[in-house]
Design a protein that fits this description.
This protein is 30% helix and 33% strand. The chain is built from 9 helices and 16 strands. The strands form 2 sheets. Strands 1, 2, 3, 4, 5, 6, 8, 9, 13 and 16 form a 10-stranded mixed sheet that branches. Strands 12-11-10-7-14-15 form a 6-stranded antiparallel sheet, covered by helices on one side. β5 and β6 form a beta hairpin. The longest helix is centred in the middle third of the chain and has 16 residues. It is elongated, with a radius of gyration of 19 Å.
């Protein structure tokens, strides 16, 4: 195996407005123009990503590039965390944003519409070790599990919104339209959950609307989080009045989410969730099976080699 050869996993974007074949042809032209040696495989669906990433790892590719979104990246890093550290140190992960949600790529200023720039940046091979968040929980089958994340974990209302947003994006095509429609649907959802959290020396035991634990942007809820400082940013949102709720939506869209009076920010290495009754849990934009009982979220420092812009 030529260690400079890229192993590329292409995850076609679904939806009425997407054209997977044309998208790949454009990416392929950019790869050829840059003279990059690569092999590629295409995922049939979201369930095949895990299997294909494992195949690329076992076949000896040292540079694995995911053409996909946050969920595909999540699968990739979880595959990498299953192999021994020495082997993982030899592998570098990159991304060409191509998903319903590309928040982690946006953190690094990768642009879906500028494939030429993205491929050029990746070719420069600027590598940075990045952190991962990790949730440890007990499944419904009683198994002790862990799952890693690049971007964030949402607990409560926003996890529901992210799920709605993923579903409506198929119909609207537009990120903004699907997001606004999801907020409208939010009116018909449960708006608060009884929670018990331990964050640093603070203990939160009350009704909470949503919690975001971010290793990076957290879809705008942890805008100051960075995946290389060994810390997690946490936003705990209490239930605001209806007028404050619309104010919160406005601040969220403007990127000033932390300025809202109902948002309580923290920075920590560990969050204990002792109770979160009936609250949905989302990880990197994808719903996960709701943990049974208490669970913890912590940070793993500098565990993944990631290709970043020049």
């Amino acid at each position: 195996m030529n260690e400079e050869k890229w192993g590329i996993l292409y995850c076609p974007k679904s939806g009425y407005w997407s054209s997977p074949k044309k998208r790949w042809e454009k990416i392929e032209r950019c790869l050829q123009a840059e003279g990059i040696d690569y092999d590629y495989v295409q995922s049939e669906n979201s369930g095949s990503v895990d299997r294909l990433v494992k195949m690329l790892i076992s076949n000896g590719y040292k540079t694995i590039v995911i053409v996909g979104g946050d969920s595909a990246l999540n699968d990739a890093v979880n595959c990498l965390m299953q192999i021994d550290q020495q082997k993982r140190e030899e592998i570098v992960l990159g991304v060409v944003p191509n998903g319903m949600m590309n928040d982690f790529a946006h953190f690094w200023e990768f642009d879906e519409d500028n494939v030429e720039q993205t491929i050029g940046w990746l070719k420069q091979r600027r590598i940075r070790k990045i952190d991962l968040g990790c949730i440890r929980y007990v499944s419904k089958q009683g198994d002790h599990c862990r799952r890693y994340f690049l971007n964030c974990i949402n607990i409560g209302l926003v996890a529901t919104i992210m799920n709605l947003r993923r579903q409506t994006r198929h119909y609207f095509g537009s990120r903004t339209l699907s997001f606004l429609f999801s907020f409208i649907l939010m009116i018909f959802q449960r708006l608060e959950y009884k929670m018990h959290l331990k964050i640093n020396t603070d203990e939160v035991k009350r009704k909470v609307m949503t919690v975001c634990i971010g290793n990076a942007l957290g879809y705008g809820q942890t805008p100051n989080a960075v995946p290389y400082n060994g810390q997690l940013d946490v936003s705990v949102v209490y239930h605001p009045e209806m007028t404050q709720l619309f104010e919160g939506i406005y601040l969220f869209v403007r990127g000033k989410f932390l300025n809202h009076r109902s948002v309580h920010p923290y920075r920590t290495q560990k969050v204990e969730v002792l109770q979160a009754d009936h609250a949905m849990v989302g990880i990197d934009g994808r719903m996960m099976n709701t943990p049974v009982g208490a669970f913890t979220v912590s940070v793993e420092q500098e565990v993944i080699n990631f290709l970043i812009p020049c």
